[in-house]
Automatic annotation (TrEMBL):
<keyword id="KW-0460">Magnesium</keyword>
<keyword id="KW-0479">Metal-binding</keyword>
<feature type="region of interest" description="Disordered">
    <location>
        <begin position="1"/>
        <end position="20"/>
    </location>
</feature>
<dbReference type="GO" id="GO:0003725">
    <property type="term" value="F:double-stranded RNA binding"/>
</dbReference>
<dbReference type="GO" id="GO:0006397">
    <property type="term" value="P:mRNA processing"/>
</dbReference>
<dbReference type="GO" id="GO:0010468">
    <property type="term" value="P:regulation of gene expression"/>
</dbReference>
<keyword id="KW-0255">Endonuclease</keyword>
<feature type="binding site">
    <location>
        <position position="139"/>
    </location>
    <ligand>
        <name>Mg(2+)</name>
    </ligand>
</feature>
<dbReference type="GO" id="GO:0005737">
    <property type="term" value="C:cytoplasm"/>
</dbReference>
<feature type="binding site">
    <location>
        <position position="65"/>
    </location>
    <ligand>
        <name>Mg(2+)</name>
    </ligand>
</feature>
<dbReference type="GO" id="GO:0019843">
    <property type="term" value="F:rRNA binding"/>
</dbReference>
<keyword id="KW-0699">rRNA-binding</keyword>
<keyword id="KW-0540">Nuclease</keyword>
<keyword id="KW-0963">Cytoplasm</keyword>
<dbReference type="GO" id="GO:0006364">
    <property type="term" value="P:rRNA processing"/>
</dbReference>
<dbReference type="Pfam" id="PF00035">
    <property type="entry name" value="dsrm"/>
</dbReference>
<dbReference type="GO" id="GO:0046872">
    <property type="term" value="F:metal ion binding"/>
</dbReference>
Length: 262
C-alpha cells in the first residue's frame, strides 16, 4: 500500500461496492466498524501524513482524527456518567482516561478492526513498522469515528463508539482505572488548589517526520511546569504531563518540609 498513488491505493485497497462481486477487504473493515463510509472519505481516514507527503494532493487523516477524538470523548463521558451515577468526577475521569488511552484504542485497532493492512503509509514510515505503531493505530480509530460522524451524524457515530469501546468501559469499571499522566496532573493540580493544566504545542521537522513538543502550564500562568517531546501530539502531552506532575509533587513536598521545620 505504500509508494503508490493515492488513487491507485484507493481503488485497490478500499474500494467498496454494494455489489457482492465487488466485495473487498475494506468491506470487512467496515463490517467490523459497524457502519458505511464513502470510499473517498475512508481513504482519507486511513491515510497517514507520510503517505500524503509522498503523494501531493492526498488528504491525510489528521482533521478526521481531531473530530473523532472529540466525539469519542463525548460518548465515553456520556456513557460513564449514566452507568455510574454514584461515582465522583475524579473517578469518572480516571476510567475515561484508561478507556480511551493510546494502549486501549490501539488494542481495539489490532483486535476488533485489524486495521493495520489498510493504513496508507509513506515508504519510510512503512519500513519503520508504522502499521503496528500504537500511536498511529490509535489515531486511525479516532479518524474512523470522525469520518462516521461527518458522514452520518452523532447517532451513528455513537453506535460505532459503543461497538468499539463498551467492552473496555466495562473492563475498567471492574478492574479499577489506572491514571494516565494527563489525568494524574489534572488531579494533582486540583488537590493543590491550582488551575487546570494547559498544553502549548510546537511542531518541528519535515511533515513526514514531525516532532511534537508540548509545554504544560497551569491556567493562565505562563510558568512552564513540564516539557515533553514525541512523535505525536498525544505522546508529547503525556510526557509534558509526567514532567509537570513530578515538578508539582517535588514542590509540594518541599513546601511541606519547610512548614514542618519552621
Amino acid at each position: 500500500m505504500t509508494g503508490t498513488s493515492a488513487e491507485t491505493s484507493a481503488e485497490h485497497h478500499v474500494r467498496v461496492s454494494t455489489q457482492d462481486a465487488d466485495y473487498t477487504p475494506a468491506s470487512e473493515l467496515l463490517e467490523a466498524l459497524g457502519t458505511t463510509i464513502s470510499p473517498d472519505l475512508l481513504v482519507q481516514a486511513l491515510t497517514h501524513r507520510s503517505f500524503s507527503h509522498e503523494n501531493p494532493g492526498a488528504l491525510n487523516y489528521e482533521r478526521l482524527e481531531f473530530l473523532g477524538d472529540a466525539v469519542l470523548e463525548l460518548v465515553s463521558t456520556e456513557t460513564l456518567f449514566k452507568l455510574h451515577p454514584d461515582m465522583t468526577e475524579g473517578q469518572l475521569a480516571k476510567m475515561r482516561a484508561k478507556a480511551v488511552s493510546e494502549d486501549a484504542l490501539s488494542a481495539i485497532a489490532k483486535t476488533k478492526l485489524k486495521v493495520g493492512p489498510y493504513i496508507l503509509l509513506g515508504h519510510g514510515e512503512a519500513e519503520q513498522g508504522g502499521a503496528e505503531k500504537n500511536s498511529i493505530l490509535c489515531d486511525i480509530v479516532e479518524s474512523l469515528i470522525g469520518a462516521t460522524f461527518l458522514e452520518h451524524g452523532i447517532d451513528e457515530a455513537r453506535k460505532v463508539v459503543h461497538r468499539l469501546i463498551d467492552d473496555t468501559l466495562a473492563e475498567v469499571a471492574t478492574e479499577g482505572p489506572a491514571l494516565d499522566w494527563k489525568t494524574s496532573l489534572t488531579v494533582k493540580a486540583h488537590e493543590l488548589g491550582k488551575p487546570e493544566p494547559v498544553y502549548h504545542m510546537e511542531v518541528s521537522g519535515p511533515e513526514y517526520a514531525q516532532v511534537f513538543t508540548a509545554k504544560a502550564s497551569l491556567g493562565d500562568n505562563d510558568q512552564i511546569i513540564g516539557v515533553g517531546k514525541g512523535s505525536s501530539k498525544r505522546k508529547a502531552q503525556l510526557a509534558a504531563a509526567e514532567a509537570g506532575w513530578k515538578a508539582l509533587d517535588r514542590q509540594h513536598k518541599s513546601d511541606a518540609l519547610k512548614k514542618r521545620t519552621k
